[in-house]
Amino acid sequence: MMNVKHLLMLAVCLLPALLVTPGSGRAVVLDPDTALGASASASSSSSSSSGTVVSSAEGSVRAGDGGRAIRPTFVKITAAPPARVAQIRGTTVELECEIMGSPTPTVQWVHGSGQTADWEDISVNVISEDTPTSVARVVTRLVIDRASRASQTTFTCIGRAAGQEVSSSTVVYHVDSVAHLGNYSDVPLLRPVAAVDTMFKNLKGARITLHYKTLFENMGSTVVLPCKAVGRPLPEITWLNEEGNVVGSLQDARFRTLPTGELIITGLRWADMGSYTCVAKNVLAKDESETFVYPIRPN
């Protein structure tokens, strides 16, 4: 049974997904633009010749013919980065993009020339389509700390899933100081990331650049929860459960943290539903991100 915390988190997520009422064995399909109701068990049902319609306060969903659910494929930007911003040269700033898709979308940043925008590690801002049965909301951050001589640079966040593609571009204007904003005075100025003491100028604080915000996946599947982080020295990654305890093979053989930061959950169970927190830490800073995992019953 879902506790109140889980119900509230699901209501806030507003995720389109393939849902199954636990224990019922009946699958329902949520339209990509339909919000997820606070509780599947609170829905009322009615039958028709073409399937089962389940109504909720947020909308209605329909099971396919013969009780088989139809998995929608889609990709959409759920939180776009700003269209125009300004950056003071010499400062480190960030852009954030949130994309949702079924199956889990590939997410990537590129700059105006079409090249991957992360200079240090091109894998930092990329998720591969390894789990075709999943539905995920992906958050990616682009850390911009390289000074540019150009007056402006365009960065584009791209999401791809099932042959579909969405993108959102941001024009970053580079200025020497606030006093030099000039014609860009109406453009939002990106807030610099906290500066590092000059004695540590070759070091960078830990920052998580990519993670799932929410993930819907079939029970029995092997789940891979990414937690990509940048920093110098390279951050150490630790995963915690809702109780704040470290998750790993020492506690449960089904859970394993890879050296690259991913948390692997083998044989996903209903009891695994909940929030998992990735902690990235190095000598300068600590960063955290949270992923909510919702197991669903496959057809």
Automatic annotation (TrEMBL):
This protein's record includes keyword Repeat:
yes
Region Disordered: which residues? 39-65
Q: Which SUPFAM superfamilies match?
A: Immunoglobulin
Keyword flag Transcription:
no
Highest taxon in the source lineage: Eukaryota
Instruction: Supply the name of the protein.
Output: Ig-like domain-containing protein
All copies of the Ig-like domain together span 72-167, 192-294
Q: Which InterPro entries match?
A: Ig-like_dom, Ig-like_dom_sf, Ig-like_fold, Ig_sub, Ig_sub2, Neural/epithelial_adhesion
